[in-house]
Amino acid sequence: MFQSEISENRHTKYYCSNVLILKFVILVTSTNAYNQFLLLMPLCFIHLLLCAFLGVSNPGETTLLKHIDGKINFIASDELQNLYLVKNDVLEKYDGNGKMLYSYSLSTLGPIDAVDATDPMKPLVFYKTFASFVVLDNTLTPSGDPVALETYGLEQVNLACTSYDRGFWCYNPANMELLHLNAEDLEQNKKSGNISQMLNEAIHPNYLTEQNNRVFLNDPDVGILVFDMYGAYYKTIPIKALPRFQIKGEQVIYLSAGKIMAYNFKTLTESSIPLPDSTATGLRIEKERLFILNDKGVDIYAVK
């Protein structure tokens, strides 16, 4: 029923039967059972859980495809398995196999603070220093001039992301509120109101993203604040001290102490997977790809 091959290099491959996969999935339905069993389970099972995160239906092997060397501030990814590397004011785009495709830079706006590639055809690049953003195409060519939010009375905006309706969300610390700007003329058509007053505590958000008809605003000291598509506060996910995270379905995927953590904000359960790289400082998951950031660069893994 079960066979494994383990090599001492980073190209380790794991093989398991479908019968064993089914039994293991049933076992780890319980988070407590998973945590107890993790101490004893072979490396093969780590691969199986990773496949579950990625949505791979017939797990076979995990392979390191490529290491991209360099000092990288942070990474982003899109649903087409493309990888985006930020190196100060430079943005580089790679395909899922690690081939460099395009690069972009606009040094006059300072370092890049955020990249939102939710729409692979229109990635957004945000510059906090000048409260500005640029919308690119899939070749990282600007689709227009930089948008200076100061022009719209939003010079203190320090976070921004794209919205499903081709508009934009941003956080304005001056009023401590979440704003939605429409795509046509950047008119403010949705507002959360003063979030600090709602929560009865000061907030200092550091990350913003929209996924699955929800807006997620992260405060390292408070947690992940969730809003609906009209900017109305919904709830707080009690995960703290995060610089970035990823939303996959109903799960928050994030890195903690060398593990991939998955918190299901519907069932309120959490599971974890040890990473092949314990020095990881960031990660992204897209279909059959796992991107791991560390101090030396980025490792690209294929999960099949």
* Relative helix content: 10-25%
At the first level of CATH, the class is: Mainly Beta
Give the overall shape, derived from the CA principal axes: globular
Strand arrangement in the largest pleated sheet: 1-24-23-22
Biggest β-sheet description: 4 strands, antiparallel
Task: Describe the model.
With 304 residues, this protein is mainly beta. The chain has a single domain, classed as TolB, C-terminal domain (Neuraminidase). Helix content is 12%, strand content 39%. The chain is built from four helices and 24 strands. The strands form six sheets. It has a four-stranded antiparallel sheet with strand order 1-24-23-22. Strands 2-3-4-5 form a four-stranded antiparallel sheet, with no helix packed on it. The chain has a four-stranded antiparallel sheet with strand order 6-7-8-9, with no helix packed on it. A hairpin with a 5-residue loop joins β16 and β17. The longest helix is centred in the N-terminal third of the chain and has 12 residues. The radius of gyration is 20 Å and the shape is globular. The N terminus is likely disordered.
